[in-house]
Amino acid sequence: MNQSLTLALSKGRIFDETLPLLEAAGITVSDDPEQSRKLILPTSDPVIRVVIVRASDVPTYVQYGAADFGVAGKDVLLEHGGEGLYQPVDLNIAKCRMSVAVSAGFDYASAVRQGARLRVATKYVNVAREHFAAKGVHVDLIKLYGSMELGPLVGLSDAIVDLVSTGSTLRANHLVEVEQIMDISSRLVVNRAALKTKREKLQPIIEAFERAASLKQ
Ligand code: ATP
Ligand code: MG
Asked: Is the CB of 165 under 6 A from ligand 1?
């Protein structure tokens, strides 16, 4: 049986914060994806390799089995829907929150109270739709792929739904966080078929990740 494993990671915080978890499982990656242009990185374990993909593409690679496992933010998993994915571990990395923010001068509370129809720009249309529907707030959602902070500044939208960690990006753009929707962290996701056929090789890695993640709580 082929027990070689492919792990899908995105560059940046997820790659950086997954490295110590891999090390806890006895796996080291010597290439730095910020330096090299390689998309497939070998590891110290000859049967394990890392593929570097866009953060929002991680669930797709794992769903179709092009990667056996991967690390993806809860934000990305909620938008993807999580079909075909087993999510055994909250890794407690890349922590932030998903929030509603508006221009400093915009009275969000009274707009909501008056039943105004709000224009909301976001990359996270599924989460945003559910959030506002649950509150009974009428919204027109405007799908963006990045730089949501710009939306209210140029009159594209009244509000944004975006990820916030320190709040410094919001402050730098004169935006105010008015509602926290949910806490976000990254999860280990495993292809359902691989979990069965490659259990012998995967299980010890999942357990090592679990132990290392629980120490981070
Ligand atoms: P891309 O840069 O390819 O458009 P991205 O912006 O989603 O994708 P990252 O910025 O690396 O990629 O974010 C990856 C994941 O890290 C997100 O899906 C989210 O779960 C988490 N994340 C995003 N922003 C923050 C933040 N400010 N602090 C902590 N975690 C964050
Ligand atoms: Mg980003």
From this structure: yes
